[in-house]
Amino acid sequence: MGQLVITFLGICGGVLFLTILLFLLLFIWRKPPFQNVCKPFIYFPKKGTFNYKIRERMRQKNYPKIYTTMADKYAVREYVKLKGTTVKLAKLLYVTDKPETIPFDQLPNEYVIKANHGSGWIMIISNGYDFVSKKKYTQNEIVQKCRKWLKKKYGKFIIFNERHYWQIHPKIIIEEFIQPNNEDAVVPIDYKIYVFHGIARFIEVHARRYLNYYQNNYTRDWEKLDLAIGEPISPEYDEKPANFDELIAIAEKLGEDIDFVRVDLFSVNNDIYFGELTLTPGSGTAKFVPEEYDTIFGQYW
Q1: 155 with 259, same domain?
Q2: Are 233 and 266 part of one and the same domain?
Q3: Distance (Å, rounded) from C-alpha 229 to C-alpha 58?
Q4: Is residue 105 classed exposed, middle or buried when 0-12, 13-18 and 19+ CB atoms within 10 A define those classes?
Q5: How far apart are CA 300 and CA 219, in angstroms?
Q6: What whole-number distance in Å separates Cα of residue 209 and Cα of residue 112?
Q7: How does pLDDT run across 31-42, given as a tens digit for each residue?
Q8: Torsion angle, CA of 153/154/159/163, rounded to 10 degrees?
Q9: Tally of domains within the chain
């Protein structure tokens, strides 16, 4: 009997070892979904790179309070207003920390619902269908999903944390849905502008999200880069927005108070709408291809 127990424990130990080894190898090869599970714990970027500096920010315990304001998807609205730019804010339809009070009968057929204290907690609803998860939801299911969001604490890892989210009072925000310019798109083109020390350096163009999604990258002078950052790229050359100079000016104004922030904006019918401010894109694990751009981005910080 004792020998059987020892043999069983030995087999379990071997299986555990092989499982851990497999996760490590798959992470090194950057194969999802294993990378997403493991990367906050075992990925250590090279010193001086953009990812390294993001991780340095995540290590901070006494971070500037403006970080929390910028990360809070509700409080940042007031921050944006005070900056006095021409950027527009999506109309706020409802805000609450009690999802059961959401007045569904007073909402339009299309709206955006999200939590203010994290990233990725969003639904884009059109007649009950969510373009993000590609599922149809009842009103009760939306309420239950919101309750789950409110219970979560975003950005809490063993070593590296995103503490600037932790002081945010969790809320559910419902905003108007901004219609895209193109009929073949679900949401407007998203311009994610990397602002270092108040100067815009790079622009990510995210197009056809939730459909044939791609991301292209450009310099401040709208020169296309042979660069991918974790998403598929397109051979297409994106048309430079007619209000590009205004996009840059707004991004630099919103990002002037800290050494780095990514400013996400939408351009719709020559109007520029605010998306969000992102302090730790990719949690310091963004996959730059080629990798040299990780260093190039880091040099501007």
Answers
A1: no
A2: yes
A3: 20
A4: exposed
A5: 13
A6: 15
A7: 444 444 455 555
A8: -90
A9: 3
Of 188, 206, 178, 180, whose CA–CA distance to 281 is shortest? 206
Q: Residue 230: which CATH number? A: 3.30.470
Record the pTM: 0.84
pLDDT digits over 236-285, tens only? 889 999 999 999 999 999 999 999 999 999 999 989 999 999 999 998 88
Closest CA to 149 of 160, 141, 138, 139: 141
| Cα–Cα–Cα angle for 295, 297, 301, rounded to 5 degrees | 105
Q: How far apart are CA 287 and CA 294, in angstroms?
A: 8
User: What is the C-alpha separation between 66 and 27, in angstroms, rounded?
Assistant: 34
Identity (one letter) of the amino acid at 227? L
Within a domain: residue 27? yes
- What range defines the domain where residue 20 resides? 1-42
CA–CA separation, 98 vs 228, rounded Å?
40
User: Do 192 and 221 belong to one domain?
Assistant: yes
* 1 lies in the same domain as 32: yes
Q: Which residues contact 192 (CB under 8 A, 6 or more apart)?
A: 203, 204, 205, 206, 262, 263, 264, 275, 278, 281
Residue 131 domain flag? yes
Are residues 257 and 274 located together in one domain of the fold?
A: yes
